[in-house]
Each structure stands twice: as structure tokens, then as C-alpha cells.
Amino acid sequence: MAISKVLIANRGEIALRIILACKEMGLKTVAVHSEADRDALHVRYADHDVCIGPALSRQSYLSISSIIAAAEITGADAIHPGYGFLAENAHFAEIVGECGMTFIGPTPDAIRRMGDKAVARENAKKAGVPILPGSDGPVRSFDDAAAVAKEIGFPVILKASAGGGGRGMRICGGEADLQSAYETARSEAERAFGSADVYIEKYLERPRHIEIQVFGDRFGRIVSLGERECSIQRRHQKLIEESPSPVVTEELRKEMGDAAIRLCQSVGYENAGTIEFLYQDGRFYFMEMNTRIQVEHAVTEEVTGIDLVKEQIRVADGKPLSIPEGPFRLRGHAIEFRVNAEDPRTFAPNPGKLKEFHVPGGPGVRIDTAAYRDYVVPPHYDSMIAKLVVRGKDRLEAIARGRRALDLFIIEGVKTSIPLHRAILDDDRFIRGDISTRFMEEFEW
Question: What's the pLDDT tens digit per position in 33-79?
């Protein structure tokens, strides 16, 4: 039976983004919301809305039983998880299917095989995708960690197997620091993800973070839609993303894309996903896979002309990919800025009421947001207010449009990351494309 009503198990700009895609496709929508989000735009724009609990995520957006109940009482036949919250929860995807609804995302098996980062690393190795030297799965004791570190050489990095967003991750420069790094990473991983498992890899000191957007359907077709450069980040949290990468050639794009497709084929991957690589000294290495739509999916949409959210829904509905066969070229250049309600220097969250909210326009400017004047940014969730995406015929034009749009973006009432983004665009290293994941550590303004 074809999808007719979609419940969005999320909030903020991604919930609104999914509603807009559904409206274009003629599908009814259901918004779920916490008590803190009663006045949110996704609630206003959906055809139906259901309050699923208090402000705390674990009592609302992470409550599987509440979300399933909301879907059942509204007659939703599909659930889109967005990103974050339950998006990469295989158990949730399984329950959605068992309740007779369609999960708009990959299969539970694929989420399990690629969601655990240690398991994903092993799958990449078997698929012939380059990986960094490191442990074969989680290290079970400090002695095991010490043995691996000694074999591959310092510096090393410890990562939570079930992790993401920089939590449960520690860099260790020498043997004297390993015990502390090991214990801290395990403790943080246990608190954040309910699993203390960590694995260990060789640490690259000045890599680029380059990811490949992939898409698969249930007929076995898997495509690569080019790369996104995500090296501008702080504490493993991305700030600016762009496509194409300043350093990726057509040959390297094909090589990385082929490796990503090979890995997806090995696990029978369906729907949208992202393979993340580290790139340094002309070589790339598998880092992890995100089995969901990404925050930065708009960058790829702007340079490919493909609506990734609509494609997600079509594929989940049993249709083949609508993306044409054969190679394609990225068109122009796109850059995305995450506009967060936070102090631009300390990065401390700064929730509160938006006393003024005026978004920029003009050629090559896209704003994805669920904010508005007098909207109250709640303290309970991610601090992102909006995504500003600019597109130009080349990178220099995209940077110029980014400067113009940031100058015209007016937000009053809370501190935002806009001044930081504006300063980065004037940095000579950024303009040259001479960046790495260490960029923000060395950035002065």
C-alpha cells in the first residue's frame, strides 16, 4: 500500500523540511511535539499534531511508545525520523515495521551493521575500503588498548563504538596519557550511549573530513552523489560544510564514491546515507557511516538538483531511484553555515526569545529554519536556529554570497554564530581552501 500520511518523529528545521517535501508529494503529515514545542512551526504547518510528553527528550522525542501511539491514533502509515533522536535506532526502525508502518530510512539490519562504529570499520575492511590502522573491534581492557597503541604508534584516538558527535572520543599523544584517555572515553561512552565499548585508531594530525552522500533502493541500485567538505568543526561538531571540496578531483571523487558504493553494497544498504572519510597526504580512510539524512544534506541538493527528502520517501515507498543512470557532474559550488544560538567565542548555548528575526534573500541564498520573530529557542535541545546555504557558479562566488547573506541576517535577542562565520569567510586559509579539522584550533579573530 502506498504511503499517504507521514509522521515526523523530530522537531525544528528538519521536521519542517520533511513537511515541505510531503506537501509537494501530496502526502498528509503528522507533527509530534513536546510541551516545550507547542508553538513550533512544524506543529503549525502539519495536518495533524500530537503532544508526546514533557520537554525532556527522553520523555518525548526519544519515547518510542509515545511516537508509535501518535502514529496509530492519527492513522499515519509511515514515519520519518529526520536526524538525531531515534534516526539511527535499529530497534525503533524494527518496531515501526512490526506495527505495520513504513520506516523512511535504511533497514534495521543495515543500521545495526553500520551504526556500531567498530562493526562498521570491520565491514569496511572486508569490502576493501581503506581504513586507518587500529584495533579489530572494541578493546576489552586497558592492556589491549596499550598493546594496539604500541603496535600502530602514537598519537592514537579512542572512539565510542556506539558514538557520534565527538562524545566518547579522546586523543592520546603518548603512553603516559593512555590510561586516563581510555577510562574517560569509556565512562563518557557509557553515559552517552549506554555502551562503554571503545575502539582505537591511528590519529591523523591534519586531516580533512570529507563525506560522500550515498543513496540506495530496494532493487540493489546504489549511487554516490559527490562529496561534502566538513573540515570546519569544533570539538567534532561541524560548523561549515561545502560541496564540492576544494581538493577533490574528478578522479578522487570517483575513487571515493566507488569505495562508498562498495561498502553499501556489502550490507545491502537502502535509502539515504553518508560515508565519512578522513583525507590526508593524498589518501583517504573510512571513518564512519551515518545511516540517515544529514544536517548538511542541503549542500548536496544545491549542487545536484536532487531533493533528497522526497527521494527518501519514494524509495521507502518501494519505488526505484529517480536519479538518472550514468555519471553526473556537480553544478556550481554550495556552502552551508549552521547558525546556532550560542556565544560565537565560547560556544556556550544562549537560548531565549528572538526579538528580531530577518532572513537574507537574493540570488543563490537558501534558508532552512523553523524560527521566527518572537520564537523562543528552548534550552532543552540542539542550539541550531537555521541553516544558511549559499550557491554560486564557483567557490569564490559562493563565498561572496555568503558574506552578503551573513551581513543581512538579523537575529536579536540571543547571541549567534553569525559573527564567527563572517570572520571565517575573511580568513586567507579558508579562502584558499587550505583547511583541516585543526582549522578552528588555529583560528584567531
Answer: 999 999 999 999 999 999 999 999 999 999 999 999 999 999 999 99
CA dist 294 and 302 (Å) reads 14
pLDDT above 70 coverage of the chain, percent: 99
Nearest residue to 301 via CA among 291, 311, 292: 311
Domain count along the chain? 3
- Please check the confidence at residue 128 and state whether its pLDDT lies above 70: yes
Q: Are 154 and 215 in contact (CB under 8 A)?
A: no
Q: Model-level pTM?
A: 0.94
Angle, CA of 289, 104 and 313, to the nearest 5° = 110
Q: Provide the annotated active-site residues.
A: 292
Instruction: Return the number of other C-beta atoms located less than 10 Å from residue 376's C-beta.
Output: 16
Full residue range of the structural domain in which residue 167 is found: 133-202
Cα separations (Å) of 118 from 265, 329, 386?
18, 33, 33
In this structure, are 198 and 212 located in the same domain? no
Residue 96: the pLDDT is 98
Domain at 18, CATH number = 3.40.50.20
Same domain, 226 and 334: yes
